[in-house]
Amino acid sequence: MLQSVRVLDxxxxxxxxxxxxxxAQLGAExxxxxxxxxxxxxxIPPYYVDDLSSFFLSVNRGKKSIVLDLKSDDxxxxxxxxxxxxxxxxxxxxxxxxxxxxxxxxxxxxINPAIVVGEIIGIHDQGPFKxxxxxxLVVQAMGGVMSITGSENGEPSRVGYxxxxxxxGMYLALGVAGALYSAGKTGQGEKVQVSLLDAQLGxxxxxxxxxxxxxxxxxxxxxxxxxxxxxxAFRCADGRYIAVSPxxxxxxxxxxxxxxxxxxxxxxxxxxxxxxxxxxxxxxxILRPIFAGRDAESWRQHFFDLRIPASPxxxxxxxxxxxxxxxxxMVEDVQDPVSGERVKVLGNPIKYAAAHELRYxxxxxxxxxxxxxxxxxxxxxxxxxxxxxxxxxxKEEQYDQAN
Length: 403
What we know:
The structure is a single chain. The protein is of the alpha/beta class. The chain has 2 domains: 6-203 and 324-389, Crotonobetainyl-coa:carnitine coa-transferase, domain 1 (Rossmann fold, 3-Layer(aba) Sandwich); 232-312, formyl-coa transferase, domain 3 (2-Layer Sandwich), CATH 3.30.1540.10. It is 38% helix and 14% strand. The protein is built from 17 helices and 13 strands. The chain has helices at 15-25, 54-57, 73-84, 97-101, 105-111, 136-142, 163-186, 196-203, 205-214, 249-258, 273-278, 280-291, 296-305, 316-321, 323-327, 368-374, 380-389, and strands spanning 6-9, 29-34, 48-49, 52-53, 63-67, 88-91, 116-121, 190-195, 232-235, 241-244, 310-312, 331-335, 342-346. The chain has a 6-stranded parallel sheet with strand order 5-2-1-6-7-8, sandwiched between helices. Strands 9-10-11 form a 3-stranded antiparallel sheet, with helices on one face. A two-stranded antiparallel ribbon has the order 3-4. α16 (368-374) packs antiparallel against α17.
């Protein structure tokens, strides 16, 4: 775990903050450094708890928040003082911004040779892509994932959540954790750069490898796997769908028996993996009326009792309410320290033997005085000056630090 690690998180909106939250979930002390205008995610509609948007709440647990204007001499000097007392800095600016602000890796390692700098960018840091906007949908389109998502022969579909942003944040956290380990061994820091586009291309894994070997362009198959059969969702009597994936000889035989068709296991058309894949549509035609004969929950219980891989296609509320999610504390109930209201949040998917509870997402700048006092040793009058100088701006003012 990263309990002895301090991270300065200058990221904003979704991907970078998600990476910062992952580092907090790994045990790091994460200090969110915000400009006076604040992270715009604090205001993203349509849902709010008190003065914080649900969007912001989702990726900022476990962090502290301080306000510094890095475009001011005082703010930059205070940031440098924090760098001396920290182990990593993460940010998600346009590639040329860190140097203009004076917070690029070359500058920060002069201040702290062991500092790790994690940078998340959109596409590339050179040439015509240096200033290219890279929103999640655009990166999904560039990364190929939209072409393999959705119904066969249908319109391109985006993944249901912002996979480009979130994958970038996950790779960022992983890269920073690796660099922190190295810095702890050698005393020398490292720069880690993650491109959102690189992250999407990296997730293509076997689809890309299949293309490299076969030359065949991967395409969308709906819920159906292009590698395994049967492995798709079937409509049940109640109109709901159940996804089944009886991979391997033992599961296949058990599945055939479970659906009342034990003879399918030895049918030459379906006798092995390759034949089932070759005749996948013929197999699906046999299975569709079978699944239409019972409701999804009846099939779920039937397959669960027989230990055959299957599940109804759950809605988000159903997924969050399922027994295994609750048993593994993937839904937590935390208290807003300001309003006292209890708020449900997602739990930590990384489980440690020792409990590690994350604090409620911070209000804008609520830790400025404490951090500057405890870490930088600033006198009370100097801290008061910072708090007054960098007091949060009104919501109407634009967040322009990344421009």
